[in-house]
Every structure is written in structure tokens, then in C-alpha cells.
Specification:
By secondary structure, this protein is an alpha+beta fold. The protein has 18 helices and 22 strands. The protein is globular and about 80 Å long. 36% of the residues are buried.
């Protein structure tokens, strides 16, 4: 990238880019932004000037330009919000120039000012970072540069304020007020030890689930009050903010986070505790469908402490449309909290890229770029908003970077199950669709099990290292273990359906109903794991179909299949080559 952006001619970003709003062409034409030196870690901040006078926009801000990120550390607040419909805007003033902010941003700014006022903070002495305003959205090069700093911007803020107020959602105080009250009650009466809530009284504390006799002190909490608050709390967990791709980085990297909604605020730890407590007290939250709320002594704490007789007579259920509770969405919120609790350093980008398939973005490239700050810098992936790369080209580049950094084929586990590329497909069979969209509301489990990494012997590393050839062809050296033309489909390991090859190998893969005689099992020493790959012959090349999990159930220790499994599981590459008919071959996967 050039040392500066001074010579960059501003052009509108691609048509699918909502952050560059045509409504602000006049603002950008006034050239309110100074040019960053891209070799420096610079950013901009806002300072509240005043609330607007009659007939003027409500809010007016001064733009503080070319600020040093290091020098500003802990000296500003960062705002996290959901942009919403880019066509819905509200006017504010920035350096005296009219700026059309997203309507949701306008609400978020008002929430921030209320937050400051309630905390006794003079807003005119505070600095605020807001993405839509503090980044020149008309300059793709600057956007790319600033996205590279995004994690550090949120990590360097004194506090991140996450706004759950949205113009398209019901603006009710009931849900967050209920959550605050439950949190205060928990702080007075409960503590947590070894993942379990316990009573603070009597001494010694009593495990909550064995303390039914202490519920009498909670009679003042009525069932109707609890139900009303609970019904209001659930929509908070379903706001669009939780589904934004960018909030993962903004939330996880922040030192302190407060949620804002309807003029009230709540630390994220308190919000997380209430949700955790609900899961422990209401096992029904782990099941899809409507949520039965069980009554006993009309209190939050009694939800899961019913005896069988009272449960049968007093259980009530909310209709699905009344509570609109989806298990996956609540799990996603709790999952995000757990991820923040265990966050240490940037790591595996593949996990975040899979999660991105269930996130919402206004720009499909952000399904990758929004997670770069959470990935190891060793991947050397940089955001590029120039619009020169297609989504297919972006997926290929990301996979290439992953292969270069990790030096194994673990990324093959993230290819959609059952995907078979067509003859006219632009995406190679070995490249995951990192920018695709998954099932709405279905969020991944961050603890997804991956195979243990296997390090190739240094003497063999250069011989078997994967190479990407021109035309996006993946060249590998492997051993063809078996063909799948004569597979049996009668093996069932536990509850999973498996298949048996003609040579007696038991494997688990998907989809076994699409087997062709040309499909083969390959062992690839450079893959980085002990499982096999299912490849399909196509002319002189191969297509990737699936990873195959290898099993053996033969009792005869002298059979060929048992020997093969033992050699693969023991990483005995030399032993494999001693078996008759097994040789190394160079293969090219398209």
C-alpha cells in the first residue's frame, strides 16, 4: 500500500456496500477528512459539541483527525451497534456539516448521551469512536487500512457501549429492567463456585438446587411480574446486534462492555450471569419449541425446583409466537459470552469463518474481514475493499493463506458436506465457501472437535508439502488405499451410519449414497491428520468429496484392513509403503 492515500481518487464503493451511503455525497464532497499516513496507526474520534437547537439536527460533533491510536489508549469510548437499513437515516452535524447517520446509529448516540448523563459524565469532555463517521467510507483504501486496526481500536477503548436499541424493534424498558433486577437479586443472594450457584446465606453456603426451604424469602416476586419481564428479556437476545459479524471482534476484544437499551445500561457480566442462571434453572431452554415456565412459590429461583406433584398441576407454557424463543439464538448469545470469558490471543481463523456463515453483513466480504482481528497475524490476510476480487477469488485467496500458514489440510473439514462441484463451477473442489450463508439462526459450537494434528517427519516434509499450481490446482503426494466401488452399506458404529470397503476397511463419511466406482480413499501424509480423503477421478485429475473417518472392527488381527489402520494410526509411513500394492503417487485436485 502507498505511504498515504493522498493520490487515491475517491469513487463510490461497490453497489452492495451499505456503509457508503449516497445520502452523504455532499458531506464527502466537502472533504472533511484529513489523509492518514498508512505507515502510522492513526484514527479519528468524535467529541460531542452540544445538542441541536430548534430546527437543527439533534446532535453536533467535532471530528478529531489523525489521532494516534497508542496515545489515545483508554481515552475514548467505542460504540458498537447494528447499522440496520441504510436507507433509514437521521441528520446530525459533523464539523458543522450535515451528515446522514444510520437511524440505528442516531438512536445509539442518544443512548450514549443518556448513559453519560446518568453516570454524571460531561459528554462534551468525552471522545467517541463510531465506524460510519470516523472512517472515510468513500475511500476503500482507507477502509481497508482502518479495518486492520479495528481490534486494537476496540481493545484500546476505556469502554465499549453496545446498543441493543433498534428503530425496527419494540422500544420497551421491561426486558432490560427485568434483567437488571434479576442481576441485583443474584448479587444479593447468590455466588458462584465451580460453575454452580450457591446461596450466600446461611453459613456455610448451601447449593442452590438443594435449598428449596429458602425460597420463602422470595415470595415478594410475583409470577406475573416474572413472566412479563422474562417475555421482555427474550427479545433482547434476538436483536439484530447479536447476528452482526462485526460484533464478535468488537465485543470479545473490549476490556469493558456495557449494554444500552431504552435508557438503561447493564455490564455484560451481569447480562451473562442472568442468562447462565436461566439455563441452570430452566432445562427447557436447551430444547427447541415453546418454553414451559414452571411455577413454585412464584419466584425466579423456583423454576426448576418443583416436586413432581406440583409440577404436574402448575406448569404453564408460553406460545412460541408469544415468547419467540429460538434455542439456537439463545445458545449463540451464551456462546459469545463463553468465548469472551476464555479469550486470550488471536488464533484459528477457520473457526471464525465457519461462524461467519450464520452472521449478517451488509458487505459479503465482511464475512471474512470482520474476523481478521481475532485470527493469528501469521495468516497475513488483509482486508481489501478495492472491489477487484470476486467472492470466489476471495475464498481461494483465504484458503491459500491458511495453507501457507498452517501447512496442513485441516481446512478441508470446513467444506460443506455433500458438496460436489459442477463442471462449470468457478470454485475448486478443495476450497471452502468462506463467504457463504448458513442456516438462519444456526450458530456453531466454538468447541467443535477437530482431529489431532500430526507433524510430518522433517525428512519427508519437502517431498509431501502441498503445492498450489496455476489455475488453482492443488498438487499433493499420497497413497491410494482402496477404491469404493464395492462398498457395503450395513455397518453402524453407534448411532452413525458407516460403510465397509471391499478390502474390509470401515469408514464413516458423507454422503455414502453418491458413491461412484471411480471414488477412492487416499492417505495424504501432508494432510496433518490420520483420516483419509475421498477423491473422485475425473479425467487425469481428481475432485475432493469428503474427509473419511477410519475405523476397524475386525477381530482377526492378521487381516489386511487391521494392518492398514494400525499403520495409519501409528503414523508409520514407511510401513505403509511396504504393503503390497501401496505406492506414492502425485495427484492434482481441481
Amino acid at each position: 500500500m502507498d505511504p498515504s492515500f493522498a493520490n487515491y481518487e475517491r469513487e463510490p464503493s461497490p453497489i452492495y456496500d451499505n456503509f457508503y451511503s449516497p445520502e452523504n455525497r455532499e458531506f464527502y464532497a466537502r472533504n472533511p477528512y484529513k489523509t492518514f499516513d498508512s505507515s502510522q496507526r492513526q484514527f479519528r474520534l468524535l467529541r460531542l459539541l452540544r445538542k441541536g437547537r430548534w430546527g437543527e439536527p439533534k446532535l453536533s460533533f467535532a471530528l478529531l483527525d489523525q489521532m494516534s491510536l497508542e496515545a489515545s489508549r483508554r481515552g475514548y469510548t467505542a460504540l458498537s451497534y447494528c447499522a440496520g437499513d441504510p436507507k433509514k437515516t437521521v441528520p446530525i452535524l459533523v464539523n458543522g456539516i450535515r451528515f446522514n447517520a444510520f437511524a440505528n446509529l442516531g438512536l445509539a448516540l442518544e443512548e450514549v448521551i443518556i448513559y453519560w448523563e446518568k453516570k454524571g459524565i460531561n459528554g462534551e469532555h468525552q471522545c467517541l469512536w463510531v465506524d460510519q463517521i470516523c472512517i472515510d467510507q468513500s475511500n476503500p483504501n482507507e477502509r481497508s487500512h482502518q479495518v486492520g486496526l479495528m481490534r486494537d481500536i476496540y481493545a484500546g477503548a476505556e469502554r465499549v457501549l453496545a446498543c441493543l436499541t433498534e428503530c425496527d424493534s419494540e422500544r420497551s424498558v421491561v426486558g432490560i429492567q427485568w434483567a437488571i433486577e434479576q442481576s441485583q437479586w443474584m448479587q444479593r443472594h447468590l455466588s458462584m463456585a465451580d460453575g454452580r450457584f450457591i446461596w450466600r446465606r446461611p453459613d456455610p453456603p448451601v447449593d442452590l438446587l438443594d435449598s428449596a426451604r429458602y425460597f420463602t424469602e422470595l415470595e415478594k416476586i410475583s409470577l406475573s411480574t416474572f413472566q412479563e419481564g422474562f417475555v421482555g428479556f427474550i427479545p433482547l437476545c434476538q436483536r439484530s446486534w447479536w447476528k452482526r459479524a462485526w460484533i464478535c471482534q468488537e465485543f470479545i476484544s473490549a476490556v469493558e462492555v456495557d449494554f444500552l437499551c431504552s435508557g438503561l445500561s447493564m455490564p455484560w457480566q451481569d447480562f451473562a450471569s442472568v442468562l447462565t442462571y436461566l439455563y441452570k434453572q430452566m432445562p427447557e431452554l436447551s430444547n427447541p419449541g415453546s418454553v414451559p415456565v414452571r411455577r413454585r412459590r412464584s419466584s425466579l429461583s423456583s423454576l426448576s425446583t418443583l416436586d413432581d406433584e406440583s409440577s404436574a398441576s402448575t406448569q404453564t407454557s408460553f406460545e412460541p409466537e408469544q415468547v419467540n424463543l429460538e434455542r439456537n439464538q439463545l445458545d449463540a448469545v451464551r456462546n459469545l459470552f463463553e468465548r469472551k470469558k476464555c479469550w486470550t490471543t488471536p488464533g484459528d481463523i477457520k473457526v471464525w469463518l465457519e461462524h461467519s456463515k450464520c452472521c449478517e453483513t451488509s458487505d459479503p466480504r465482511d464475512k471474512v474481514f470482520a474476523f481478521l482481528g481475532l485470527a493469528s497475524p501469521g495468516y497475513r490476510i488483509e482486508a481489501d475493499y478495492s472491489g477487484l476480487k470476486s467472492m470466489v477469488e476471495l475464498s481461494i485467496e483465504i484458503t491459500r493463506k491458511i495453507l501457507e500458514f498452517e501447512k496442513n489440510l485441516h481446512f478441508l473439514y470446513y467444506i460443506e458436506k455433500g458438496r460436489i462441484v459442477s463442471d462449470d463451477s468457478l470454485l475448486p473442489s478443495w476450497v471452502p465457501e468462506w463467504t457463504s450463508t448458513g442456516v438462519d439462526g444456526q450458530f456453531i459450537n466454538f468447541s467443535r472437535a477437530m482431529p489431532a494434528s500430526v507433524q510430518l517427519h522433517p525428512a519427508l516434509a519437502s517431498q509431501f508439502t502441498p503445492v498450489i499450481l496455476p489455475g488453482n490446482i492443488l498438487r499433493l503426494v499420497g497413497i491410494k488405499i482402496d477404491c469404493l466401488g464395492g462398498m457395503e452399506k450395513s455397518w453402524t458404529p453407534g448411532k452413525k451410519k458407516g460403510t465397509k470397503t471391499s478390502k474390509g476397511l470401515y469408514i464413516l463419511w458423507w454422503p455414502d449414497d453418491k458413491i461412484q466406482p471411480s471414488d477412492c480413499l487416499w492417505y495424504l501424509p501432508a494432510a496433518g491428520y490420520r483420516n483419509l480423503l475421498v477423491l473422485r477421478r475425473k479425467s487425469d485429475n481428481w475432485l475432493f468429496l469428503s474427509v473419511a473417518y477410519l475405523y476397524t472392527t475386525e477381530k482377526d488381527n492378521k487381516c489386511w484392513a487391521t494392518y492398514i489402520v494400525d499403520l495409519i494410526m501409528g503414523d508409520d509411513f514407511a510401513g505403509l509403503l511396504e504393503r503390497e500394492g501401496l505406492i506414492t503417487e502425485v495427484i492434482e485436485i481441481h
